[in-house]
């Protein structure tokens, strides 16, 4: 029997012969290690926290692609959240807005958590792989309790929450890394975890995997959608969900920006010799972690310094170009944005010249192009209102519509519009135990929350948000296409009642997105 089948069969066998209680200790054999999990007797959910899916990316494996873990003997306890990857910040911020738990940081962080319905005897449960956000700089599996999604799915799905290398540990680029290491190591970690799911966990029909992420996690989903020119083989997922797709500038690996960053990191580490990458591998991880933070802090406010690049193999061309050519992995897409994505990433106390802001956000813009952008957003009120909208449109909302277009009508679009509808305020609806940024539930209405979350989970299980796992008040969710630009808006009335309606996408918004599409050679997206 394949390892994948063994894993799920072991769970079914154990819970069928033992009462579900705190003493139940399911053990799974992955070939390279045996892990003991725990059963939540109240929720009837089996959890394995801290499964190693790759070897420690340390020493000679630093800045390399992930590799299989070495075999270990004995039973490994998978009771607690794993240590998180070294955390960063975002530009001009002195605190980490996502670090909320006392979890150790380490370079040896390639672990994942698995959550499964204990009493569901189905052999072939759909699997959702959650990719955390955090600007490719921070975030961890510990912040997202997969049991929340198991419950949301009515015990119809298995949830896998993964970690990946962050900041310079995962996204240092430049010719030196190309020649002596692996570009986009953080993305390769994610792909390695997806292959782990195919090989070691997902039982039965391996075509029932959905990848879902928020912010940079959603940006990661986009990267996997366009990976290998849309020809990833064998396929690693059938469906994709993005919550606030994040697409910052993505330069070629040897362009000026990645090269300058590599040289800056090497200089701070005292690695200016003939073999700087070898030197960086010898630097202790705590020193590199400090360099990572210092470098990111030097970036433009609200931006993230170490992000994916065009590497020529995993990502062969700009994501926007790949999407325009319809070169995608996966068969179907669901994407949701917040009505006000931008303000979280904009200094709300600063004074702005709008054209100058555009040039800071996209350094390839000249005066003519930045003036044109400023003119388009002149109707949005104050300069602060304009740059809030520019940030939201250019980095989050418009890339989402480009992603939708690439699926040629086999996609769904939604908007979370409960005021103020800031970036991240949707997350706590489907992860009620989430305690990081923007984690206050701003509309505590059970009918609304169920309608919102069931769209995601029904889509992941049935490939259709309208084929509901549980009854909700949501109307029919229409598909989005260029010919029928209709999405569903999740809002409330002035009297506080849920207001969930299909709406024609704003033509003014789509016109602004056309501008950003036309400027993609300057935005480097």
Automatic annotation (TrEMBL):
<dbReference type="InterPro" id="IPR002018">
    <property type="entry name" value="CarbesteraseB"/>
</dbReference>
<keyword id="KW-0378">Hydrolase</keyword>
<dbReference type="GO" id="GO:0016787">
    <property type="term" value="F:hydrolase activity"/>
</dbReference>
<protein>
    <submittedName>
        <fullName>Alpha/Beta hydrolase protein</fullName>
    </submittedName>
</protein>
<dbReference type="InterPro" id="IPR050309">
    <property type="entry name" value="Type-B_Carboxylest/Lipase"/>
</dbReference>
<feature type="signal peptide">
    <location>
        <begin position="1"/>
        <end position="22"/>
    </location>
</feature>
<dbReference type="Pfam" id="PF00135">
    <property type="entry name" value="COesterase"/>
</dbReference>
<feature type="domain" description="Carboxylesterase type B">
    <location>
        <begin position="27"/>
        <end position="485"/>
    </location>
</feature>
<dbReference type="InterPro" id="IPR029058">
    <property type="entry name" value="AB_hydrolase_fold"/>
</dbReference>
<dbReference type="InterPro" id="IPR019819">
    <property type="entry name" value="Carboxylesterase_B_CS"/>
</dbReference>
<keyword id="KW-0732">Signal</keyword>
């Amino acid at each position: 029997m394949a390892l994948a089948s063994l894993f799920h069969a072991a769970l079914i066998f154990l819970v069928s012969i033992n009462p579900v209680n705190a003493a139940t200790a399911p053990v799974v054999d992955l070939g390279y290690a045996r892990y003991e999990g725990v059963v939540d007797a109240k929720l009837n959910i089996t959890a394995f926290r801290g499964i190693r899916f790759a070897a420690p990316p340390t020493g000679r494996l630093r800045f390399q692609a992930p590799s299989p873990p070495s075999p270990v003997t004995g039973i490994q306890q998978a009771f607690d959240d794993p240590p998180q990857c070294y955390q960063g910040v975002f530009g001009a911020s002195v605190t980490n807005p996502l670090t909320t738990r006392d979890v150790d940081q380490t370079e040896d962080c390639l672990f994942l958590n698995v959550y499964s319905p204990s009493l569901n005897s189905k052999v072939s449960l759909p699997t959702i792989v959650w990719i955390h956000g955090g600007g490719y700089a921070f975030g961890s599996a510990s912040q997202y309790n997969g049991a929340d999604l198991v419950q949301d799915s009515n015990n119809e799905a298995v949830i896998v929450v993964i970690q990946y290398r962050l900041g310079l540990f995962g996204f240092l680029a430049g010719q030196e890394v190309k020649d002596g290491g692996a570009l986009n190591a953080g993305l390769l970690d994610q792909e390695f975890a997806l292959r782990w799911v195919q090989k070691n966990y997902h039982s039965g029909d391996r075509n029932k995997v959905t990848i879902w992420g928020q912010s940079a996690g959603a940006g990661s989903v986009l990267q996997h959608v366009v990976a290998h020119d849309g020809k990833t083989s064998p396929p690693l997922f059938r469906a994709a969900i993005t919550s606030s797709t994040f697409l910052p500038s993505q330069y070629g690996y040897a362009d000026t920006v990645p090269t300058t960053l590599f040289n800056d990191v090497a200089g701070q580490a005292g690695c200016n010799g003939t073999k700087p990458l070898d030197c960086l591998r010898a630097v202790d991880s705590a020193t590199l972690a400090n360099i990572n933070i210092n470098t990111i802090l030097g970036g433009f406010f609200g931006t993230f310094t170490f992000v994916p690049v065009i590497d020529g193999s995993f990502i062969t061309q700009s994501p926007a170009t790949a999407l325009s050519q319809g070169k995608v992995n996966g068969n179907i897409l669901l994407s949701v944005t917040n009505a006000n994505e931008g303000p979280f990433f904009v200094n709300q106390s600063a004074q702005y010249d709008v054209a100058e802001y555009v040039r800071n956000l996209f350094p390839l813009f000249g005066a003519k192009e930045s003036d044109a952008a400023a003119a388009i957003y002149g109707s949005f009120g104050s300069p602060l209102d304009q740059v809030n909208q520019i940030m939201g449109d250019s980095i989050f909302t418009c890339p989402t519509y480009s992603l939708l277009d690439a699926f040629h009508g086999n996609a769904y679009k939604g908007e979370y519009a409960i005021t103020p509808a800031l970036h991240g305020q949707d997350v706590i609806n489907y992860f009620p135990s989430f305690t990081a940024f923007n984690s206050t539930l701003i509309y505590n209405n059970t009918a609304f929350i169920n309608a919102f979350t069931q769209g995601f989970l029904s889509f992941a299980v049935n490939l259709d948000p309208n084929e509901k796992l549980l009854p909700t008040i949501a109307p029919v969710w229409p598909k989005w296409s260029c010919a029928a630009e209709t999405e569903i808006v999740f809002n409330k009335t002035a009297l506080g009642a849920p207001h969930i309606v299909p709406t024609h996408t704003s033509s003014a918004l789509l016109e602004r997105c056309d501008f950003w599409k036309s400027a993609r050679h300057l935005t480097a997206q």
